[in-house]
Write a structure and sequence with these properties.
The chain has 15 helices and no strands.
Length: 336
């Protein structure tokens, strides 16, 4: 019988190579492996990673230079991939190698002096979040610009799994996500309920009994689309939309301080309602309110829109320091 002789040195090398290759695979470490099935197929920095870092890390390692610790910015790939100021032999994130990334070592540590986020922050990462960070780093730690700065590209519309359900491509995406979540689409609402929901959404008002009955009895296949058009053409649509904007713009018919004197700004309110009912483009809607009086040959309507800048509270009490409140008003406009 042939005697097998093991070379201990070769054996150790093979074991080391196996462990190294295992570490380079997409499999999670043993302590996180149970979360493998919960990870998305594609990990997005903006959708999956940035919310974690922003909530747990950016307070000390984000854009605020005054609060930044160790000179490390995790919102900036240049800083994240560079040698750390306090430990030049280390990098916070080494793309493709979680085991050589200090960020991963810190989030997995049990040492209260080393673990991140630190116990004093009262913040913790879930095991699933740790798994997401591990997979993101192992896949190359790709950062993304804010979605509004990314070029648009064609997206393949998925084949949604529910037969005889859905009316358009948006429903196909919804159907796909419902299937991923193990859910089924709800049946279509009864026509009177559908009308009521639509009316509240677009006008803030319930439909009349007569109009509701008429819609229920209408067998025109385009009845719903015509109903939407009629509600959008109703003056109440502008009032419904204006209500939210006027809240943001801090609209009121009084000064808002102790004596709270009456002031009438209803012409501005009516202009906002009119702008929504006429479907004014948003850039124009905002520009007129911020600087309508500065536009070339400004119209009376454009000047009226700038009342937005004077909707702050106004103090006319005796004994106030006028400079103090002038600054207060400017700060209010800036915040708004």
């Amino acid at each position: 019988m042939m005697k097998v002789v093991y070379n201990k040195g070769v054996y150790v090398i093979w074991i080391g190579l196996f462990l190294f290759l295992s570490g380079c695979s997409d499999d999670l470490p043993v302590e996180l492996r149970e979360y493998q099935e919960q990870l998305p197929e594609e990990i997005s920095y903006n959708f999956h990673i940035k919310p974690i870092l922003s909530d747990r890390c950016f307070a000390c390692h984000g854009p605020d230079e005054a609060r930044r610790e160790s000179g490390l910015r995790l919102d900036d790939p240049v800083s994240s991939f560079a040698a750390m100021q306090d430990h030049p032999a280390l990098v916070a994130i080494k793309p493709g190698s979680p085991s050589q990334s200090e960020l991963y070592a810190r989030i997995m540590s049990d040492d209260p002096e080393e673990i991140m986020p630190p116990p004093s922050s009262k913040l913790q990462l879930t095991e699933l979040e740790k798994a997401l960070l591990y997979r993101w780093i192992s896949e190359g730690a790709e950062y993304e610009n804010h979605w509004s700065f990314q070029a648009l590209h064609d997206v393949e519309v998925p084949k949604q799994p529910f037969e005889e359900w859905g009316n358009n491509a948006i429903d196909d995406f919804i159907g796909q996500k419902l299937q991923e979540k193990g859910l089924n689409p709800s049946p279509e609402a009864e026509r009177n309920i559908l009308f009521r929901r639509l009316s509240f959404d677009l006008t803030g008002l319930p439909p009349s009994w007569k109009d509701s009955r008429s819609f229920v009895a209408n067998d025109d296949p385009n009845a719903y689309g015509k109903l939407v058009d009629s509600l959008l053409a109703d003056n109440s649509y502008g009032e419904r939309m204006a209500a939210d904007w006027l809240d943001v713009a801090r609209y009121a018919d009084s000064d808002g301080y102790l004596d709270d004197k009456h002031r009438s700004l209803s012409p501005y309110r009516d202009w906002v309602i009119k702008a929504f009912n006429e479907n004014m483009p948003y850039d124009q809607f905002v520009t007129w309110q911020l600087a309508g009086d500065l536009l070339p040959d400004a119209t009376q309507e454009q000047i009226l829109a700038t009342a937005f800048n004077r909707l702050h509270k106004k103090n006319s009490e005796a004994g106030i320091v006028f400079e103090e409140y002038r600054v207060e008003y400017v700060a209010d406009r800036t915040h708004t």
